Amino acid sequence: MFDWIGEWVTNVIEALGYPGLTVLVALENVFPPIPSEVILPLAGFLTGQGRFSYPLVLIATTLGSLVGALVLYGIGMAAGQQRIRRLVERYGHWALLTPDDLTRSEVWFDRYGPIAVFTGRLAPVIRSLVSIPAGYRRMPLGQFLMLTAFGSALWNGALVGLGWALGENWNAIERYVGWLQYLVIAVVAILVVRFVWKRLRARGVA
């Protein structure tokens, strides 16, 4: 974590209070370099000092999660099914993708989308990206907001609570959540490599 990011987050929270938390969490959802593992535990630490109310912190941060998720949902919706399919048909072969792959992913999301949106809010990296396919597949907005709110409240509440419990050692959470983020990235990378290997073997290249 760059020290200047942590200092900037601290200054915003101390200067703007609850609205600052909402803005920071919304930005964190859209721009992952602004880390929730700094924002939320710091808010918990300040809550433990009596400077914030836990229920109001939870409301402010969950509202921020909803705002950020809606931005990405809108991006997915704006992309549109026909535009994405045309791109896959024209350029998908460069990524070893076919229109059938896109169709299968759409069918999968239509079936498991609600589970993916809810559980995705509890995983670093995925918690931001899952909003895009939800918009792309036109998941009902009410359902999307409800699942996002519940999942975000669990994630936010847990990190705020840990920051409160650890007190002045709240920044230790950053290290452990960071490892979880690396694990998620590693799993995704393994799945991508596995897909590419199988696709190349099917084509007789590997």
Listing every helix as H and every strand as E from the N terminus to the C terminus, the arrangement reads HHHHHHHHH
Instruction: Provide the number of structural domains.
Output: 1
- State the end-to-end distance: 40 Å
Low-confidence stretches: none
Silhouette: elongated
Tally of DSSP helical segments: 9
Estimated helix fraction? over 70%
Counting DSSP E segments of at least 2 residues, the number of strands comes to 0
Class based on secondary structure composition and strand pairing: mainly alpha
Question: What amount of the residues lies in strands?
Answer: under 5%
Report Rg: 19 Å
Major β-sheet, in short? none
Mean pLDDT, nearest integer? 78
